[in-house]
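Following up on my earlier thread - several people asked me to post the actual chain instead of describing it. Fair enough. Here it is, all 251 residues.
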Amino acid sequence: MELRINHAKQKLANGEIVTIVSGITHPDDIDAVGPIGFDGIWLEGEHGATDASDLGNLTRACDLWGMTSVARINLNEQGLIYRTLDRGAQAIVVPHVNNAAEARNVVDGGKFTPRGKRGMFTSRQGLGVPNYFDQADDESMLIVLIEDIVAWENLDEIIAVDDIDVFFVAPSDFAASMGHMGDLQHPDVQEKINDSLSRIIAAGRNAGALATNENVSTYVEMGVRFFMTGAGPWIASGFNQFVANANSGKK
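Reply from S.P.:
Thanks for posting it. Predicted structure:
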């Protein structure tokens, strides 16, 4: 048995665009969207119901379709980070990383010695892989959320921390931390978000963004390569168009 390739991480290393979709919450639904070709599935463990007991089946479904399982946890705690990896996630998203020490804590929890302090246990991804501990760090993916104004103030020291794959600028909490709760399009919020993305890219690191059909091309032109988008707006758009088409056919 060979360790499964983390396809999202591989694409980033090749300078390609990575698309992760959120809002898919059941293994059967992951199977249903598998043929579409998403690079990964965002498994929501901060604001959603995904827990350790769910991760085995959720990540197995992602494995079946060659999609990276991207699990957001709710706390920057080393044991939680490596337990989530042990349960089969190929990527970890850690919220509210606001300085270099907090960024290094993510690495300590997500990488084995000598790069970090991850507990010595074979992940579900490593079952049957004889040299798992030699390869695991190269296939695990660490993503930190830049989502507070204090993170913007400390951004240079955060992006200097090695072994973090993506610095993802999350807009909602960012806006709230600036006193503009719910107003993601406020000029000051947009200026800080765009500045953060530009500085990450200029430092030669991978920037991540929450994207929609309307803004994704702008972010690509900036140099962003990692995107998360929600399935909800696509479902709503398709449904609304279906209803409109049905009503237009009334006699």
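Residues 7-248 form a domain with the TIM Barrel fold (CATH 3.20.20.60). That should answer part of your original question.
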